[in-house]
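We treat protein structure as text, and this decision shapes the records that our systems exchange. Such a record has a labelled line for the sequence and another for the backbone structure tokens. The record that follows is passed on verbatim for readers who wish to inspect the format:
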Amino acid sequence: MTVLAARARTLPGAPRHVVESGEPLHGRYAGRIDQIDWSQLEGTHSRSCLWKRLHHKRWQYVGIGSGEVYVGVAIVDLGWSVTAFAYVFDRLRKRVIADWAQDGLPGLSGWVSDQPVQGAEARFRGPGASLSLQHEAGDIMSLRVRTPVMTLQASLSLAQCAPFLLAVGPIQGGVAHATQKSSALPVRGWVEVDSERWDLGQAVACLDSSNGLLARDTEWRWACAHSHEVGFNLQQGYFGGQENVLWLQGELIPLGAAQFEFDAQQPLAPWRIRTDDGLLDLVFQPEGARSDDRDVLIAASHYVQPVGTFRGTVRRTPGGPPVQVDALLGVTEDHRSRW
């Protein structure tokens, strides 16, 4: 093997815009982008204002994991509606101990900005609930959640973190999609359920900031897990392999297509997840799961997100020495949406 072949592949730096000369800048990049703006699309990529209103989707998802709990929070702007959820999974009791979700009107109940990280703002407000994710001075993402079943205050540090992934790609039945994802981010704060409080000072967080002109029917399988030494993000479905990457000791490495082997009828059975380039081969053991199954005619969501641990191997290069992964906390997801 030549010296060049033995090196891990590197990604180009993030561009300033996701569109250039009317075309989406399809690719995977390392670094942050200030704004995801599709307004300059032209030709075969352009759509009517009404189509874009109905198909433009934006969301901010935060996952926070520790030895005791896993917390998932999302604010989703569907264009014609806005929705949010927050949950707490107790890893010792192996069950969801707080689960909240609510829908609202776009603009009135909440919104998600086109700034994925720098200057980012996502908010939701409804009966008895308030959620916000906001970029603040000092390169901090501030997350605040208040619902009838849980309260959370957390600060996620973006300083000196591993490079973010920016992925831009085509969408079958849609136009284009972009996502900005982080690896392990240090956390300060706490989460409280039924007067029981967990300190999150030893937790790590990941950010998923996504923005695209998507198809009406969308489905995916997803896996994500992070520590300060190793982390990964994998997706199989509507976005192809665009967002498949490995973080290894701070290095961002692109991965091939992901294969998910699991029983959709028994999502708490072990999952096998690997990539076709041989760089990742893991088994996921669920500890429990959050699920949602809603169908309101004009929209539907069939969703399960198991929480658990990964074990197996990852590699920097094909044929390179394996790096052992054991008890790495993360999530998988099987999701089908009509939105």
Q: What stands out?
A: Residues 188 and 201 are 5 Å apart (CA to CA).
